[in-house]
Amino acid sequence: MELAHTADVEAFRAEARAWLRARVPARPLPSLETAEGFAAHREWEALLHADRWSVVSWPEEYGGRGVDIVKWLVFEEEYWAAGAPGRVSQNGINLLAPTLFDHASPQQRARVLPSMASGEVIWAQAWSEPESGSDLASLTSRAVRTEGGWLLTGQKTWSSRAAFADRAFGIFRTDPDAPKPHQGLTYLMFDLRAPGVTVRPIGRLDGKPAFAELFLDRVFVPDEDVIGEPGQGWRIAMSTTGNERGLTLRSPGRFLAAADRLVGLWRAHGDPSDTALRDRVADAVVGARAYELFTWANASRFAAGAAIGAESSLNKVFWSQYDIALHETALDLLGADAELADGEWAEPWVFSLAGPIYAGTNEIQRDIIAERLLGLPKGRR
Amino acid sequence: MRFLPTDEQSDFARTLRSLLGAAEVPAAVRAWAAGDAVPGRALWSRLAGTGLFALAVPEAYEGAGLLPLELSLGFVELGRAGVPGPVVESAAVSVLLAELADGALAERFLPGLARGETSATLTLPGGSPYALDADAATYCFTVSRAGELRLLGGAREPVRSTDPARRLSLPPAGPGGGGELLAAGPAVVRAAGAAGRWARLLTAAQCLGVGEALLARTVEYAKQRTQFKAPIGAFQAVKHRLADTLLDLEFARPLVWAAALSPGPGEVAAAKLAAGEASYRAAMTALQFHGAVGYTEELDLSLWLRKARPLRDAWGTPSACRAEVLRSLTPPRR
């Protein structure tokens, strides 16, 4: 057992660090949940891509560097430690791309991945529907066969980034008569500017349109935008949600950097006599370290051939709770200034509040942990 | 980077686990609590056969070298089985004497400790004032604030612990502290610091094992205990709390590994904090879900329930560990 990296990994770290130090914007970009910020972030994605830092783990032919999970984690550490901007392309890179690598045709990969890597096409996820959140398999939006493709009709909601994104991916019911709700679903990609699509931005708690409702009225999708076989959408989508709950969405580097900033805030603003708050700062430091180490142990398991399983539910509950606790601690350190909407910690706090809700609510994750990892009996949800 | 136990390390833990699983440890714990150390000593000598105690002793004195990682994996198993006695303290004394590098002292005590023929207990400045299991241990060591290492003899005043299997006593106080003066000075202070860190690390490992035992027993119970015509483990309120217990333990485990790999003060404190809290919360969950039957001393569960709280506080309370974590951040990491 060891935690030391090889010289090769450390050289990669040094290269990434030097690149990031030279190019990370001195001032934070405007929020990516605004039109102005979306444009600025698109430019940042293009800059990253120009030197093949936008998708380091992808094969070189799609704009990546083909690095393994260890180097990816190291890159993420450096990325967040450098204070680099949040990734506006994250839905595509973290959710759609792994699906494409596992289930798409080579032609689809060649068509979709390069423009995703460069930020030229920003993807939104279109999973949930008004009556289908945690019970996603109950979704009713339909895709009906037509010549050369499918016609989408229905409504999607809570579609992250859809207010400003270019394209979306999701699952649709193609066989309403299938015996079980998980069957007869198809995974496909569609254009948010296609005829028949209406995008209604939804303001989240801080008013920023971080997601949107999508109204679909006979939207044409060509066959080439179906991923995998029609009817296999559920299985394909589930392989994606494992990625979402797992470490791709929240790499430890992000929390290590946030905990460092929190310690800095505590040193600057902390009341030495407030030991309760001091204890929460210590807990944030320990939590980031625990998450980092848990991830390294998992990376070692993956390197030894293990697949991502129900353990990703442990990950998801941990980081989502940790994220809120860390940001609440920061707000408590700020005192009266905590309520200032443009403060450095305000938007990340609002963002953290969604963690236990999306990517499968924490209630559902705890059911998975209890049933699949502890072997407890299934019960009523 | 390969942050997983090697096959040899896992095999060692498995060997201990199966040995302890077959050893009727609960009976030994109950005897130990009643003042009969014979079954406990028998258990101790079987453990010695695995080489466990040699892992805290340098090779020059019949040890296997100071191997904190292997020792920690072993101590998880001691916690899981609920092994009684001054296991942490004996290892800490071995480390103290090894770090002191006084050939005569090392020759006098270390080979016996490495072979598991002798055991030792220890009090250190900044730790608990109570010596654990001094009545059963072969030796009782103490280090004073001034840096005097003494070997104490004679009867001591007993003090009851909430865990009857932890037999406490107050070493004689007063000027000089009594007993045989073995060494003194800055070297003792340094060696005591190392011993204290190892004691904290191994207690963290023990906590992890205690927490895992509590969770495993509670999961089994929740599967078979029915209420309202369903196993209680099918109720979401029960499931979710057990899921959180697993979460606590799974995120404490790599902290213990990392601290064993590099036993600096901050790493060790983080491991102890997380493992101690996880274990105690596992105890509270176990108690709740076993209901009234869990609130009895007849059920073997009580052996772990009563241990979780003292171990959480032994060799570093959560508060002390949090303070150490923040102290160790200076200068800032990045």
Description:
- Chain A is about 45% helix and about 15% strand.
- Chain A has helices at about 5-25, 35-50, 70-80, 90-105, 105-115, 235-245, 250-270, 275-305, 310-335, 345-355, 360-375, and strands spanning about 125, 140-145, 150-160, 165-175, 185-190, 195-200, 210-220, 225.
- Chain A starts with 6 loop residues before the first helix and ends in an 8-residue tail after the last helix.
- The mean pLDDT of chain A is about 95.
- In chain B, the strands form four sheets. A four-stranded mixed β-sheet of chain B has the order 3-5-6-9. A three-stranded antiparallel β-sheet of chain B has the order 4-8-7, with no helix packed on it.
- With about 325 residues, chain B is α+β, with helices and mostly antiparallel strands.
- Chains A and B meet through helix 7, helix 8, helix 9 and helix 11 of A and helix 7, strand 11, helix 8, helix 9 and helix 11 of B.
Short description:
Chain A is α+β, with helices and mostly antiparallel strands.
List its traits.
heterodimer, A: 381 residues, alpha+beta, four-stranded mixed sheet, four-stranded antiparallel sheet, 46% helix, globular, B: 334 residues, three-stranded antiparallel sheet, 57% helix, 11% strand
Number of helices of chain A: 11
Give the total of beta strands of chain A: 8
Tell me the total number of β-strands of chain B: 11
What is the N-to-C order of secondary-structure elements of chain B (H for helix, E for strand)?
Answer: HHHEEHHHEEEEEEEHEEHHHH
* Contiguous uncertain segments of 5+ residues of chain A: none
Helix content of chain A: 40-55%
Largest interface (C-beta under 8 Å): A-B, 52 and 50 residues
CA distance, first residue to last residue of chain B: 21 Å
Strand content of chain A: 5-15%
Rg estimate of chain A, integer Å: 21 Å
Count every helix of chain B, treating DSSP H or I runs of 4 or more residues as helices.
Answer: 11
Assembly state (oligomeric):
heterodimer
- Report the major sheet of chain A: 4 strands, mixed
What Rg of chain B is obtained from the alpha carbons, in whole angstroms? 20 Å
Mean pLDDT of chain A: 94
Detail the poorly predicted runs of chain B.
none
Report strand % of chain B. Answer: 5-15%
Shape of chain B: globular
Estimate the mean pLDDT confidence of chain B.
95
